[in-house]
Amino acid sequence: MDDTDYIRRHIRTVSDWPAPGVQFRDITPLLQNPKTMRVLIDILVHRYIDAKLDLVAGIDARGFIIGAVVAHELNLGFIPIRKKGKLPFTAISEEYDLEYGSATVELHGDACVPGDRVLLIDDLIATGGTMMAGRRLIERLGGHVVEAAAIIDLPDLGGSGLLRGAGLAVYTMVEFAGH
Ligand code: AMP
Known about the structure:
binds adenosine monophosphate, two-stranded antiparallel sheet, alpha/beta, Rossmann fold, 7-stranded mixed sheet
């Protein structure tokens, strides 16, 4: 079994949560097991160790868990991209469409400076809207998103294809078909 198969086997699928029809891909078993947690972080550290990054940006909330550990291991700082209304200092906002309605993510205005090379991390890419909004926040501050990394891709929802089509490098470890 290779490392990504090992990761895949520790992702739990919860049907009909948080709403009927959703197959929720739950990474908590992966985080809870010390061996899978180490493999997960080591894959990311190995991938980015020579990427000359300045910062790791994690997306609320599961992107914080992985992103902060990767940042620490790479001797980098961590910046949080948060859901609307959670950041205490002056922030910039990006709104994006959801299946029903919209969502907003925010970043402190001093989170990065022009020229910073930033790795963007979340747990999963579905429609790609969250990653795209995160990228826009970093780029508005003059930062450069080197890659968008996630554990899971749902390719049938088209998000990773959309992000790549928009010129963003994308790295994911495992794919699940369907929603
Ligand atoms: P999207 O913006 O559509 O790419 O959605 C990605 C965000 O929504 C990530 O922050 C995920 O944590 C969350 N998400 C979307 N769909 C799922 C799913 N099926 N299982 C777990 N998390 C999901």
